[in-house]
Structures are given as C-alpha cells and as structure tokens.
Amino acid sequence: MNNNHIHHDSGISLEYMLLLLIVIILMLYILAAVLSNRRHKKWPLQRTLFWTFGVLCAAAALIGPLANRAHMDFTAHMLSHLLLGMLAPILIALAAPMTLVWRTLHVKTARRLSNLLKSWPVRTISDPVVAAFLNLGGLWILYMTNLYSAMQQNILLHLFMHLHIFIAGYLFTISMIYIDPTPHRSSFIYRAIVLVIASASHGILAKYIYAQPPNGVPAAQAEIGSMIMYYGGDAIDAILIFIFCLQWFKASRPKTKTYESASS
Amino acid sequence: MMKGYDLMDAETKKTNYSDHSAYSKRNLWSGILFGLGLVAFIDETLFHQLLHWHHFYDKSTTDIGLVSDGLFHAFSWFATIGSLFMVADLRRRNALWLKRWWSGMMLGGGGFQLYDGIIQHKLMGIHQIRYVENVLIYDLVWNILAAAMILIGISLIFKMQKDPKLLRDKATNE
C-alpha cells in the first residue's frame, strides 16, 4: 500500500503535470499543422489522428486507471507497456512529426535541425541494431534484474523507465519503417533480419517471465502478463511487419516497359 | 481477377515465359515461406489456443528450446506476411506460378512441421503435442504427415523439371 502515500504527497501533482504535458503535446501538433497549412498544402487529417491516438496510448500508460492499476497488477503493467513501447511509437511514427516540424520551422532553423539529424550520434542510435539493443536490452534488464521491483518504490525511476521504454520503442520503430525523411537508410534485408531477431527476443523474454517471474510479482500475474506480452507483441508486430513489407513492396516496383503495358 | 491477365496483348504474354523461369526461384521461396508461416499459424491457433493441447511453457523446456521457439515464432510471423507480399509482387509482374508456389508451400510447411515435431518437441522439450499417455501416436501422425508434405513438395518439383512443358505453364491457366 505504499503506492497510496506516494499518490497523496507527490502523486496527484505529478499526475496533473503529466496531464498538462500530454495536452500541450497534443495541442502543439495541431497548432503546427494549422500554422504550416498557410504556407504548404493541407496537412493530412489521418496524420493528426495517428498523432492523437498515439499520444493517448502513451498517456494511458502514464496516467489514469490503467496506469494506476499497473503499480499493483503485473498484467495491467504489461498491457500499459505494450501501449507505451510498441503501439504508441508506431502511431506516432505514422504521424510523421519530423516532417511537420520541418515545414513549420523557418528554413534556417529547419536546416540546423536537419544537420543535427545527420550527425553521427543520431546516425548511431538510429541504426537498427543499436536501436534494437536499446529497446530489447532495456526490457531484459528491467524484468530479469531487481529493477522492476525497485521501479515500483521510486517514482523518479518509474518515470525514467517509462520514458526509456517509449523513446527506445520509438527509435526502434523509426529504424524499421521510414515515414519521416530518413538521412541514414539501411537495406531492407538488414532491417528484416534485425526485426525478426528483435521480435524473437521479445517472445523469448515473455516466456522467461512466465518461467521466472520478476521479484515481487505473483506467479499467476506473471503468467498472464507473459502471455499478454507474447501475443500482444505479435499483434502489434504484425502492424510493423505489414508496413515494413508494404514499403519493401513499393520500393521494388518493377519499372520495365512490360510492366507499364501490363498495368495499363 | 485472373481474367484481367487474359486481356493482355500477345507481346506481353511472350515475355512472361522468360519471366516464369526467371521468377521460378522466387515462386518457390514465396511458397516455402508461406508454408512455414501457415504451419506455425495453425500450430498456434489450433493446438495452442483452440484445443489447448500444446502448453505455452513446459518446465522441461531447455534454454536452446526457448531460443529456437522464439526465433521460429518470430520468423514464421514475418514469413507469413512477407510471402504474401511476394505473391502480390509476382502477380504484378505477371509471374505467379501456382504449381511452383504450391510445391514450395508443401516443402516449407512439411519442413517446419518435421523440425517442430522432432527437434523442438522431442529434443528441446518445448512442449508435447498433447499431454496424454500414448503421445507416441500423436508424434507419429504429426511427423509422418510432415514427411508426406515434404515428399509431395519434392515430387512436384521433380515433375516440373522432367517435363519442360510444365516449366512453360502459365500461371493464368491454373
């Protein structure tokens, strides 16, 4: 019940701060879309919807009933992690936030930003292998060490881990599918191999959690949580694999004359 | 949908013959990947979810069993989706060759089932087919079926190689 006293002291104000932050993030995107519509062609509505649902998925893992239950219930925790670390990143990637930032900013600032994105640190962490290590490595450490139980005691550690899960999930997603302009591109086959190994690692970790629950997690909760991680991960991975294959399919479109006459 | 291809001019059709041999490998691989994915999918939905014969986790599972299961599970998921995009790719190139594709599917499906039935179930102990006394019967049916699928796949491929007419067979005729 130590959650209660956290909530009474700093929890409420922290929750309000997070809520405020989420509303600001939602508003900023819509504001940027409206502002840039004056100078460019209309920003597609579906991207704004992707952004909204993406932010809401992440928000559900941070505040509200699911996030509150996740403190005590491992199955709720696992569900919130799927939303925060897998589904929200895909939706947010589909919202093409960098493209929106680019067309909203002035040319000079936009160029500076694009130089930053071309720098070697960004190139390094957006490499599929590095992004996969940050993403899956974080999860293995979280569930196979004492970090999970420590996280439930320390609110700051808890916040940091959630931030890490989201950012690493997003990095991994944008290292796999290219929605925004991507200066450093990897070949499809390289990304496919990393994607399969990363999702295998996710499934293996899920079964390890079933076999050896993290400290302080009852076996029954660990078993259901493990299955949510395994099958929920599959379901969301299917979306990622589908987009990835679709991009591959489009990129390998035949450009011969035979095709032109066949398609007409 | 198939009808659309019949409407194409003769010149396009002529080029298709060479496409078929050029894309015959891709047809085979698309089938193999789909077969692997399909068998893994049936395994998951029918035996794990609907019948509850297979267990999600068995204490006898070795570490290498977990890794193998994880890799094949992830790969089969990717293969199912990817192989269907390969079919779409072959179709837009007018190079889908169903007989070749089916032989690949038999080979991939049977191959994975045999690996699952002998290496994963028996050697790595990830789980049994069903938790009953006479599991041997289940194992026999499982693996003989797998071997039969492989044999059908191989015989189809040999038939195609013996008969050069079949090699030129058009996808649209099937």
The end-to-end distance of chain A, rounded to whole angstroms, is 68 Å
Q: Whole-number average pLDDT of chain B? A: 79
How many discrete structural domains of chain A?
1
Give the low-confidence spans of chain B. Answer: 1-15, 170-174
Fraction of residues of chain B in helices? over 70%
Number of helices of chain A: 13
**Strand tally of chain A:** 0
Which sheet architecture does the biggest sheet of chain A show?
none
Greatest contact pair? A-B, 35 and 28 residues
User: In sequence order, what are the helices and strands of chain B, one letter per element?
Assistant: HHHHHHH
What coarse outline of chain A follows from CA principal-axis ratios?
Answer: globular
Number of helices of chain B: 7
Radius of gyration of chain B, in angstroms, nearest whole number? 19 Å
Overall average residue pLDDT of chain A: 89
The share of residues in extended strands of chain A comes to: under 5%
**What is the makeup of the main sheet of chain B?**
none
Entry keywords:
heterodimer, A: 264 residues, mainly alpha, disordered N terminus, B: 174 residues
Question: Can you characterise this structure?
Answer:
The complex is a heterodimer of chains A (264) and B (174). In chain A, helix 4 (74-94) runs parallel beside helix 12 (219-251) and helix 5 runs antiparallel to helix 6 (107-118). Chain A has helices spanning 2-37, 45-62, 65-70, 74-94, 97-104, 107-118, 120-125, 128-144, 147-153, 155-176, 188-211, 219-251, 257-263. Chain A has one domain. Chain A is globular and about 55 Å long. The longest helix of chain A is centred in the first third of the chain and has 36 residues, at 2-37. Chain A has 264 residues and is mainly α. Helix content of chain B is 76%, strand content 0%. The model of chain B is unreliable at 1-15 and 170-174 (pLDDT under 50). In chain B, helix 5 (98-123) runs antiparallel to helix 6 (135-162).
